[in-house]
């Protein structure tokens, strides 16, 4: 039985290998199906052979690995849009005159300053004479129209003009890629329309998810009848109902800097605390016959009821699924039950949607819970006190520390920030988070039946205000917020290798594990050296910024920024972090520059540029100069022309056409992104 203690951990590992392989390698469908049949037959032969053998051999283990690997590969293969015949990206709808798409609203996203955003599921593309049945998610950007107000909600069927567009990559280096984020959600295209172009169908789907969303919106409406503060009601909605659209950027940044960002998104933390509370409330059932079974059923039903209350968002469904399995594991009272339950839920969720593996929330949730299960008993055992309050605080601290061990490398990789006072924040908030959840649910239920006493609402508003104030104070201690930290993917993986080595050493130290620990440190050092070696010693870059010209010249760890206007430091923060820069100096833009040994002329007026023996390799156009580009090309014979974001688009199009006729490469930062100039390029 020893070999089966962590069976789902190993199976999940094999499955993940298959998933990653499918995202990186493509095979014809016919070969995939034939190989699947062969692997399954081989597995059956190995299984029956193993049953007859007195001593097990390696064949059964190898075929089991191949089978699970194949499951991961095939589940991913058929989940990738490019491999789905009915997905809209594989259909040519250009031949349909004036096509429209019939789609369902599946999710409402946080709006931007310019538009409302929704995720829609395409169902049919409709032309004048024919209809095409399609599938696939689309990002709908709905610009407001002063002549028409439209309220959209999940479950609604809408008709909109079908003109899908590619989701753009970030125009400046190392910035957050919204395109990659949407790819992780299987969203490949976007639609940009006005409210007046949208038509709502009379057919509305009343499935569980849409009803759940409507219930949540009604509960939010009921809460707003009471005198909650603006920030308090925003935190209330996020904390209990999973709706974050009303949280201001300032409030969000405060929670991130204080190390409490996990409070604002219902995830494994909330569901785990809720499970602990429910497990405590129903502990009496353990004493009766079949009590553990009854208790497990009740716990799972209540967890899913909470998920319905929060709108059945994807993150909540994942967290509740995970803890439903853990709830069963808790009732089995075995040391390995919690870990096996955790990885069983991981296995099932990844089979359903392999794209989860790339979603940050999914990764952080599982790493945090895994780390708590593995490290919390070890950390808790380091100190014991007979004073109950002290012992309680230490155990609570051990949970927070254990969770941070699991998520810190990944948090640094994605968010580049480490809140130094996270332990203080969690020590103050976590003991009361369970009470906040319970209190908040009671407030919501009472508000829903119009029976909420004002003093109960006022008390909860006061508690939330105090919590926001505490978070703001912690975030204000800037010396303990370590930001602009860079970790490459290889550095992140090697850090987890070090954590694994430490865990093995703590459990059973021996020479082999010491060697493994030292090797893991060496791997981290090599990955750090590799990253630094790949940073160019010098380069020039023409950034993209609307209505501005920004040119950067990097030499070693120094950056000279050429700009005519004051520059927001956040604009270049990603570039400074990734290039490991120290000093940044701002200078005025000259007319002639040496950009990484490339002589460059910056044109922003209609001067006469006919100079003797002057042939710049690059011409940079800025501030929409009224020039005859064809004449300038004939005079100066440049090798390339660059237009930045300070130019009018109609002029850029005209210049691009002229450069094309002259067979001169043309780069527009508003279309192709920032322009890099490296020595020897």
From TrEMBL:
Domain ComEC/Rec2-related protein, chain residue ranges per copy: 239-507
InterPro entries tied to this protein: ComEC_N (IPR004477), Competence_DNA_uptake (IPR052159), DUF4131 (IPR025405)
Membrane topology: Multi-pass membrane protein
Main location: membrane
Pfam family, one: DUF4131
Entry GO terms, CC: plasma membrane
Transmembrane segments: 7-25, 31-48, 60-80, 255-281, 293-309, 339-358, 364-383, 392-415, 427-450, 462-482, 488-506, 513-531
Subcellular location, record wording: Cell membrane
Record has Cell membrane as a keyword: yes
Residues of the DUF4131 domain: 27-197
Keywords: Cell membrane, Membrane, Transmembrane, Transmembrane helix
Top-level taxonomic group: Bacteria
NCBIfam families, per the entry: ComEC_N-term
PANTHER family (alphabetical): DNA INTERNALIZATION/COMPETENCE PROTEIN COMEC/REC2, RECOMBINATION PROTEIN 2
The protein's name: ComEC family competence protein
Lineage, uppermost ranks: Bacteria, Pseudomonadati, Bacteroidota, Flavobacteriia, Flavobacteriales
């Amino acid at each position: 039985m020893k070999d089966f203690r962590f069976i789902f951990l190993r199976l999940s590992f094999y499955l993940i290998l298959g998933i990653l392989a499918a995202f990186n390698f493509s095979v014809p469908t016919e070969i995939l199906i034939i190989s699947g049949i062969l692997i399954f037959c081989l597995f059956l032969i190995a299984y029956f052979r193993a049953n007859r053998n007195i001593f097990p051999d390696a064949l059964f283990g190898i075929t089991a690995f191949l089978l699970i690997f194949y499951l991961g590969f095939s589940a991913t293969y058929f989940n990738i849009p490019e491999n789905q015949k009915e997905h809209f990206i594989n259909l040519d709808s250009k031949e349909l005159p004036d096509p429209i798409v019939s789609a369902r609203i599946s999710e409402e996203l946080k709006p931007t300053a310019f538009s409302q955003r929704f995720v829609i599921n395409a169902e049919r593309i409709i032309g004048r004479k024919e209809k095409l049945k399609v599938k696939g998610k689309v990002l709908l950007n709905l610009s407001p129209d002063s002549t028409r107000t439209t309220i959209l909600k999940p479950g609604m069927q809408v008709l909109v003009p079908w003109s899908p567009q590619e989701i753009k990559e970030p125009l400046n280096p190392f910035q957050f890629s919204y395109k990659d984020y949407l790819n992780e959600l299987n969203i490949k295209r976007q639609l940009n329309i006005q409210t007046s172009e949208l038509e709502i169908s009379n057919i509305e789907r009343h499935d569980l998810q849409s009803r759940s969303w409507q219930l949540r919106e009604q509960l939010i409406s009921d809460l707003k009848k009471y005198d909650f503060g603006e920030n308090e009601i925003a935190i209330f909605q996020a904390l209990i109902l999973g709706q974050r659209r009303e949280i201001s950027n300032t409030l969000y940044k405060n929670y991130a800097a204080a190390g409490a960002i996990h409070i604002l998104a219902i995830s494994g933390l909330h569901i785990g605390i809720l499970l602990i509370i429910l497990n405590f409330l129903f502990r009496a059932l353990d004493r009766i016959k079949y009590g553990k079974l009854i208790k497990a059923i009740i716990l799972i039903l209540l967890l899913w009821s909470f998920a319905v209350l929060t709108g059945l968002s994807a993150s909540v469904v994942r967290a509740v699924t995970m803890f439903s399995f853990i709830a069963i594991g808790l009732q089995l009272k075995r040391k390995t039950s919690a870990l096996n339950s955790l990885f069983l839920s991981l296995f099932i969720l990844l089979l359903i949607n392999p794209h989860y593996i790339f979603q940050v929330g999914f990764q952080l949730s599982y790493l945090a819970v895994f780390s708590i299960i593995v490290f919390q008993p070890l950390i808790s055992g380091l100190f014991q006190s007979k004073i109950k309050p002290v012992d309680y605080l230490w155990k609570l601290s051990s949970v927070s520390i254990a969770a941070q061990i699991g998520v810190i490398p990944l948090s640094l990789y994605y968010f580049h920030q480490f809140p130094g006072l996270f332990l203080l924040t969690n020590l103050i908030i976590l003991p009361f988070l369970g009470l906040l959840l319970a209190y908040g649910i009671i407030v919501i239920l009472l508000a829903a039946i119009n029976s909420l006493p004002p003093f109960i609402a006022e008390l909860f508003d006061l508690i939330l205000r105090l919590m926001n104030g505490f978070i703001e104070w912690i975030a204000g201690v800037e010396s303990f917020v370590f930001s602009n930290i860079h970790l490459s993917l290889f550095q992140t993986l090697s850090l987890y290798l070090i954590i694994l080595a430490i865990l093995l050493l703590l459990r059973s130290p021996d020479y082999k594990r010491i060697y493994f620990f030292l090797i893991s440190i060496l791997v981290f050092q090599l990955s750090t050296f590799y990253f630094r070696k790949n940073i160019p010693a010098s380069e020039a870059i023409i950034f993209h910024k609307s209505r501005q010209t920004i040119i950067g010249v990097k030499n070693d760890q120094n950056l000279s920024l050429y700009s005519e206007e004051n520059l927001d430091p956040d604009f270049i923060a990603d570039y400074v972090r990734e290039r490991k820069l120290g000093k940044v100096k701002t200078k005025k833009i000259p007319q002639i520059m040496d950009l990484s040994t490339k002589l460059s002329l910056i044109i922003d007026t209609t001067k006469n540029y006919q100079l003797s023996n002057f042939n710049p390799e690059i011409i940079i156009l800025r501030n929409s100069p009224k020039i005859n580009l064809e004449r300038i090309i004939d005079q100066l014979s440049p090798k390339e022309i660059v237009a930045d974001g300070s130019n009018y688009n109609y002029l850029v199009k005209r210049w691009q056409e002229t450069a094309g006729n002259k067979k001169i490469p043309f780069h527009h930062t508003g279309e192709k992104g920032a322009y890099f100039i490296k020595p020897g390029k």
